[in-house]
Specification:
Layout (H helix, E strand, L loop, with lengths): L5 H10 L22 E3 L6 H18 L2 E7 L7 H12 L9 E7 L4 E7 L8 H17 L3 H17 L21 H24 L1 H20 L2 H17 L5 E2 L2 E2 L22 E9 L1
Parallel strand pairs: 1-2, 2-3
Antiparallel strand pairs: 3-4, 4-7, 5-6
Helix pairs in contact: 2-5, 4-5, 6-7, 6-8, 7-8
């Protein structure tokens, strides 16, 4: 059997892929799940500070339609903050679909780096030069002093001012919960509450106490909830009367004896209370980065 030269064997082994990863190789830092406007994975912000930022961003979104998300992570790992920022906006997609009016304010605390990632639709209001001024002149100086809450608030307020000058489509008015910036949707909320109380509570009370006592209890309960939600005596009175009337006559329109006709249960009820999601906005890498 002919002998194979040792040099050939060495060359063959050298060309084989190595099963052992290179020393120091690391996996990508995962993108966290989007559940709120402000995500702090470092514990930098107190609950009160995070709540104040949430309320500011929610009120702005309700008024203007644009979505601003804040993410604070310990580090972006082996990736640059720009690379990680693109992965975040690709996963979260803040901003409205087709309008692309989203912004991500990303902070990598241990890396001492931050990034503004700007959606396509805001590149006119927040061009790279303007985004860079917000980062370098407004946010970075406060971060250097260790005041992250003040830096985030100031940066967000600066972005809101320039975005307010951009002509964007009006936001859709949706039914919301008191305190989330959507109080103008109270008629739908109250009618939904009355609907559920009449269908569920009213039917049980009618079986226990009879029509008139059940109508009085249901109307009073619904009116009290309406008053708590909107602090309007007129609204509470209207909802209480409707609940009283429909409980007395046997339920809301569409209800049959022995149960509710399916197909529309929960219509108009606000979904995902306590959660938040992006709207499908698109990004192309516009924005600015900085270090402190």
């Amino acid at each position: 059997m002919p002998r194979i030269p040792a040099a050939w064997i060495a060359a063959f082994v050298w060309l084989l892929p190595s099963p052992v990863p290179a020393a120091g190789a690391q996996s990508e830092v995962p993108v966290p799940r989007l559940e709120r406007r402000v995500t702090d994975l470092t514990g930098t912000l107190t609950p009160a500070e995070r709540s104040a930022l949430e309320q500011k961003l929610a009120a702005f979104e309700q008024r203007k339609g644009s979505q601003i998300a804040v993410l604070i992570v310990p580090t972006t790992g082996e990736e640059t903050i720009e690379q990680y920022g693109i992965r975040v906006v690709d996963a979260w997609r803040p901003g409205r679909e087709g309008v692309d009016d989203g912004v991500l304010l990303l902070v990598a605390k241990e890396d001492r780096a931050l990034r503004l990632e700007v959606g396509y639709g805001l590149e006119g209001a927040l061009p790279d030069a303007t985004a860079n001024r917000i980062v370098e002149d407004i946010v970075v100086p406060r971060f250097r002093e260790g005041d992250f809450d003040a830096g985030l608030h100031a940066g967000i307020e600066a972005m809101i001012r320039v975005i307010d000058g951009e002509p964007l489509p009006e936001p859709e008015r949706t039914v919301g919960w008191p305190g989330d910036g959507a109080e103008e949707g109270w008629p739908g909320s109250l009618l939904t509450i009355g609907f559920i109380l009449v269908v569920v509570v009213g039917s049980v009370l009618r079986a226990l106490f009879g029509r008139l006592p059940a109508a009085v209890i249901t109307g009073g309960l619904t009116g009290a909830i309406a008053w708590f939600l909107v602090a309007s005596l007129l609204a509470a009175g209207v909802v209480a009367f409707l609940a009283f009337f429909f409980t007395l006559v046997g339920g809301m329109p569409g209800q049959r004896r022995g149960g509710y006709r399916g197909g529309a249960w929960g219509a108009g009820w606000p979904s995902g209370r306590g959660g938040w999601s992006g709207g499908g906005g698109g990004f192309g890498g516009g924005g600015a980065s900085g270090r402190w």
